[in-house]
Specification:
The chain is an all-alpha fold. It contains six helices and no strands. The relative contact order is 0.21.
């Protein structure tokens, strides 16, 4: 899909998909680091997918987003949340949801290289 309209999919469905996309990025990154114990892999993965960590990661990449990408992020961030985890503030949770929506949208748009680039910059994986 080259021209993926912001309104083609619900923001909630983009965030749902983006959660999976980010999880795959994290798992791939950890495996490439040479981690092999499933217990350690799961423990390390939590350091990437918590709302607080995603919000900090999003702060790093927000200035690097195109106008269109930033619009997708804002749309995801502005979903009305009725419950948030105790470990994150409302702002952190909203930012994490925006990040998930962005990564879901990028995946549907077929922009795998951009996903890898933003993930690497977000989590300083260089």
């Amino acid at each position: 899909m080259e021209d993926l309209s912001l309104n083609t999919y619900s923001t909630a469905s983009l965030a749902y998909l983006g959660d999976c996309v980010l999880e795959l990025c994290v798992r791939e990154h950890l495996v490439k680091l040479g981690l092999s114990s499933s217990a350690r892999l799961n423990r390390e993965a939590l350091e990437y997918v918590r709302a607080t960590k995603q919000a900090r990661a999003m702060e790093r990449i927000l200035p690097l987003l195109s106008e269109e990408e930033a619009a997708v992020f804002r749309r995801g961030r502005n979903i009305g949340h009725t419950n948030t985890p105790k470990s994150a503030t409302v702002a952190e949770y909203r930012s994490a949801t925006g990040m998930e929506a962005l990564f879901g949208w990028l995946h549907l748009a077929g922009r795998q290289e951009r996903i890898r680039e933003l993930f690497s910059l977000a989590y300083d994986c260089e």
